[in-house]
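Margin note from the TA: students keep mixing up input and output lines. Inputs are the sequences; the output is the structure of the whole complex. Example:
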Amino acid sequence: MSVTLADIQSAADRLEGLAVRTPLIESPALNDRLGGRVLLKAETLQRGGAFKFRGAMNRISRLSDEERTRGVVACSSGNHAQGVALAARMVGAPAVIVMPQDAPQMKIANTRYYGAEVIFYDRYRDDRDALTRQVSADRGMTIVWPFDDPFIVAGQGTAALEMAGQAAEAGAALDLVLTPVGGGGLAAGTATAMAALAPHAKVWGVEPAAYDDTLRSLASGQRERVDPAARSICDALMSPFPGAVTFPINQQRLTGILTVTDLEVEEAMRYAFAWLKLVVEPGGVVGLAALLAGRMALEGRTAGVILSGGNVDPEQFSRILTDAAP
Amino acid sequence: MSVTLADIQSAADRLEGLAVRTPLIESPALNDRLGGRVLLKAETLQRGGAFKFRGAMNRISRLSDEERTRGVVACSSGNHAQGVALAARMVGAPAVIVMPQDAPQMKIANTRYYGAEVIFYDRYRDDRDALTRQVSADRGMTIVWPFDDPFIVAGQGTAALEMAGQAAEAGAALDLVLTPVGGGGLAAGTATAMAALAPHAKVWGVEPAAYDDTLRSLASGQRERVDPAARSICDALMSPFPGAVTFPINQQRLTGILTVTDLEVEEAMRYAFAWLKLVVEPGGVVGLAALLAGRMALEGRTAGVILSGGNVDPEQFSRILTDAAP
């Protein structure tokens, strides 16, 4: 069940010409502010507005003809939903997405726009995995898990594979990499790629302070669950516990976890708007937020930061933009 | 007073390592919508948030030691202001910027942040050129004109020079290029570069419908002035008439001018937010607006579109985002 660089390279072959090779963006203003060099992997510019298409397409491209005809089902707060819907449409498979009813409107609308059927659940009361299994059993659809699948992890790792190559093209040696952590798929893929390609780079996961399940799980050595009463602005990172596939990889490969508050996330979204001219969603900006909040000093070093998604409702984005910091 | 590809290449040498080689961004969603291929030259990601640094740095890098010590003065609604302020700071020259008092707050604040002194004028009543000449005479400062200078035109042309190379790397042949037109510096530089590098590509300028001075000037064959009562959301494109240096170049090189309304500009800004995850200011998005509004059918062709800047106040951006289209 582990994932290797070869698995990530195989995923990259599957994604060739289908996923966007997103740019690695460098901002002199950001470098000046942080006193180091920051390379932003803009997965906001990925197909579907988030890195999730990578894993979804890698998984779905491996369905048999019969599985493809019966279709796929996935549970997701929205970015995996869009990735699966897009990938399914591209291979001609029907798709059902089980989404929390409080998911951002844009994510729900786009998932439907990409041709998927949406079924809602209550994020705080229902068992989304049970619901997903039910749809799978009823309709004979293959489940595309949001993170707990080696093909998903390998697909997400292609962003870091590209980043390593692009950093080299830019004449940069990455000292550290910051990646958001929800269920841990992107983090596991990133850490696996970097361990092989840039073994001296430290890979840090970043979690919302209120959804620090991986931080606490790394401390205790076992998969800890988030308090069901916890809330976060980072809807994309609200997985209730680390994955069975992803946690052992992150346990082995991550240097550690940093956490950021919702206010620090909003501040980073405003910074990205004003200085980077990029739209980044709350869960996508946590790596940048950690640097801007001084959670880790950069001091002449080079950091790769994955901006993992940009799917944020205009109403929420407007509110955050105009909530000027004191 | 003309500008050649050699001038643009010389400017590119001056800008090497100083200007950002901005990415050429392609969005499958946008391609699908328009039925062709669109390559977006994201000058929003340029130093200072707009292409203007290119021309300003090319001009300022050619000052003598004495001129540099005395400093520079420029008049600008904001993007040239920031470009000049940044370039002046980088070479150690003092800078004064003459700005309209209704310029976006972000542009004023950033111009000061970059170390320049700001002097205000009334966009609709004062003669900004006279005011600029006055400062130059009083303080012995060299004037850095916003567009009417061959070094400025050549500097702005480096964006198209990069775009041509990046399009080739992406395996694309540009059939047409869309560039915003204010005073005409970016358009003249772009048209000059494309005429040499991709002579079959048609280069179209795009103006706000209410600021169509270049459109009317091309029709009449002489430089026509905008109605002083005209208003536009595109603050960056509100030059009162085409430049003496830029107009003859655009007259010779541009295929023509398209115009877009303020409502079409706002719609394009919302599209860029929702589907491209890019922050683009009103004057920067006119090329994309022309395509989205169907002003020119793409039909299987490839267009290069210069997104020339992203300096927009959060309040204005929020208003536009939440003014949902009917």
